[in-house]
Amino acid sequence: MEIDSIYEELGISRNVLDFGTKVEAELKTRFEEIDKNAEFNQMKVIKAMQDNRVSDIHFAATTGYGYNDLGRDTLEAVYASVFHTETALVRPNLISGTHALSVALSGNLRPGDELLSPAGKPYDTLEEVIGIRESVGSLKEYGVVYRQVDLLSDGTFDYDSIKKALNEKTRLVTIQRSKGYDTRPTFSVNQIGELIAFIKNLKPDVICMVDNCYGEFVERIEPSDVGADMIVGSLIKNPGGGLAPIGGYIAGRTDCIDRASYRLTAPGLGKEVGASLGLNQSFYQGLFLSPTVVSGALKGAVFAANVYERLGFSVVPDGNQSRHDIIQAITFGNPEGVIAFCQGIQAAAPVDSFVTPEPWDMPGYDAPVIMAAGAFVQGSSIELSADAPIKPPYAVYFQGGLTWYHAKLGILMSLQKLLDAGLIVL
Ligand SMILES: *Cc1c(COP(=O)(O)O)cnc(C)c1O
């Protein structure tokens, strides 16, 4: 059977497939580069597992207090080896990226301390954690002062203003690697390293924390390789490899991670407790698969950028730019384009492909939001997914794909929906 006929059975017409095939053929070198990074990172993960003598005993479930949970402790040692940190906290009871970031911040900040974001406004959900938006239980309520230095108009760091904002009360600097759902560029690990060096030169004792969400295994080095004291992320994004059903991590300097652990559990208890309830195997196996899964997601993002750029839409990053996270933004300029795109992503999913996503008024947002997610794990954004607020400039943010082939089908299906709606001509 020819490959065209299986695509046809899925609802992809010949002209859409031909268009996609042409674009894909031009991406050979890009894809080879992505594969080489995946190979490097795969070896890094295997080496870490071997060095820590991972064994099937580590997959056993623990319950209750979880004292001497060998699987949990070894998994944390593996994360520390992969990220080249002193230690790590990798837990199912860090229930999301936001929670992990909140624990890292509140564990390491004390009343009267200042928190500085030298890279502009952080991710939306952190506004309430910090108290940028009034919120019960925020760091602001505990007397932590927040300062922010915006990026310069070209997306680079405003070093002069950062220097002025640092003072004797600055205890922690938070740097977000990924643009998230913003329009600024994502920072490379080297750019983050330069920023940390600049800050540490002025104030050596400040804690530099990096929100590493969506960045893991995109490059060969991580922010912890260039001076970050803590890196933080979600296991239902890159490092969970699609298999982790929940979880987050904080990796870094022992004193920082200990303080975070006292906040996660209780002072005096810290990392010593917390049963892993049988989730360890999926954490290990997900981490093992993560470099390959991330490479598939990256190919999907690069493919989407090139497909939509060729059709005249504005895309961030553009088709040729180097990648530092797995998110792709595409601006359609009208609600119909955004909706058709998301409906295509949904229609290509292995789960819930038969439902049609519609914009709705989600709590906390100032415009209706449409989301496409046919995921095995609820809200997992290492799986192929797309979100868009229905407001100008009508941009959609798309990421993930557990395999390159699925990401490709998603993009082809989005093209098909746009074509069927008369919104593009091929
Ligand atoms: C996803 C994300 C978060 C929050 O993670 P959740 O798991 O959705 O809570 C924080 N920062 C960035 C940059 C993210 O992409």
Report on this structure:
The protein is of the alpha/beta class and 426 residues long. The protein has two domains: 3-42 and 291-420, Alpha-Beta Complex (Aspartate Aminotransferase, domain 1), CATH 3.90.1150; 60-287, 3-Layer(aba) Sandwich (Aspartate Aminotransferase, domain 2). Helix content is 40%, strand content 13%. It is built from twelve helices and twelve strands. The chain has helices spanning 3-10, 14-25, 28-51, 70-83, 97-108, 124-130, 159-165, 189-202, 254-264, 280-310, 335-347, 404-420, and strands spanning 87-91, 114-117, 145-148, 170-176, 207-211, 230-234, 248-252, 314-316, 328-331, 369-373, 385-389, 395-399. The strands form two sheets. Strands 1-7-6-5-4-2-3 form a seven-stranded mixed sheet, sandwiched between helices. The protein has a five-stranded antiparallel sheet with strand order 8-9-12-11-10, covered by helices on one side. A hairpin with a 5-residue loop joins strand 11 (385-389) and strand 12 (395-399). The longest helix has 31 residues, at 280-310. It is globular and about 65 Å long. The two termini are 26 Å apart. It binds pyridoxal-5'-phosphate. Pyridoxal-5'-phosphate (PLP) is lined by residues 96-98, 123, 125, 176, 178, 180, 211, 213-214, 234.
